[in-house]
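Task: sequence design from structure.
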């Protein structure tokens, strides 16, 4: 009881310290450590770790809503993850689908409504999961509040490859020669064909579980992002951890090469 009270007081102090701080407009999170959490806690299956991690996502969205952070990207499934054991993938797909459905159902209750968009190669996903994500996009497309990108079947190299392929196809459809297309290629052209087109690049990228790498997450978009790595496995990630990340972000000087 005393420990819980001290925790709440500390959380309030952290939140109070952020009232005048510069907060990120876009926070992206690599939700890492669900399987290791399950093994470390002696849970019956790794899927139970994924389920507990899924519950934490809804808390994260609450925190962002509360603080007025308008853009959030959550990495739920990478292209590498698709090679996991079939039984685990089936369970994980079900958990992700249930999570996205709940997000969509709760969207109208959030400030201004919430819009969900997919980030990744939906064609590489099991049909039921891809359909659920597309339905969530359609169901929430009018949301004017928190905008959430769900990265499912996402790989950074694949995204850039797809962007270049899409740009080349558009140029060919416009009747340009290869030489003309090459001459018109620039950063804006590539950005316009990324999965995240229309959303500002992340100001802050958080990764849980103690790993200090991006693993290909938002490779193009993270050129000027601030990174925050922390030790808790994703299911253990608390509001205090989130507030600490925001405090660290606010203390940094972002010069963008200038």
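Answer:
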């Amino acid at each position: 009881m005393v420990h819980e009270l001290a925790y709440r007081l500390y959380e309030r102090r952290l939140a109070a310290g952020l009232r005048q701080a510069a907060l990120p407009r876009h926070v992206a999170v690599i939700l890492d450590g669900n399987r290791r959490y399950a093994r470390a806690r002696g849970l019956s299956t790794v899927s139970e770790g994924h389920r507990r991690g899924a519950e934490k996502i809804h808390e994260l969205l609450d925190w962002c809503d509360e603080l007025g952070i308008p853009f959030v990207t959550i990495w739920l499934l990478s292209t590498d993850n698709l090679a996991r054991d079939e039984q685990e993938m089936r369970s994980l797909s079900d958990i992700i689908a249930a999570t996205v459905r709940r997000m969509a159902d709760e969207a109208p209750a959030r400030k201004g409504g919430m819009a969900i968009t997919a980030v990744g190669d939906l064609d590489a996903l099991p049909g039921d999961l891809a359909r659920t994500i597309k339905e969530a996009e359609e169901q929430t497309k009018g949301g004017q509040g928190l905008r959430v990108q769900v990265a499912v079947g996402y790989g950074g190299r694949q995204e850039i490859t797809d962007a270049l392929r899409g740009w080349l196809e558009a140029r060919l459809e416009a009747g340009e020669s290869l030489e003309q297309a090459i001459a018109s290629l620039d950063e804006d052209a590539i950005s316009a064909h990324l999965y995240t087109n229309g959303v500002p690049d992340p100001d802050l990228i958080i990764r849980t579980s103690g790993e200090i790498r991006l693993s290909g997450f938002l490779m193009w978009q993270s050129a000027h992002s601030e990174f925050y790595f922390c030790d808790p496995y994703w299911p253990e990630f608390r509001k205090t951890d989130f507030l600490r990340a925001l405090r660290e972000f606010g203390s940094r000087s972002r010069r963008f090469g200038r």
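Residues 6 and 154 are 39 Å apart (CA to CA).
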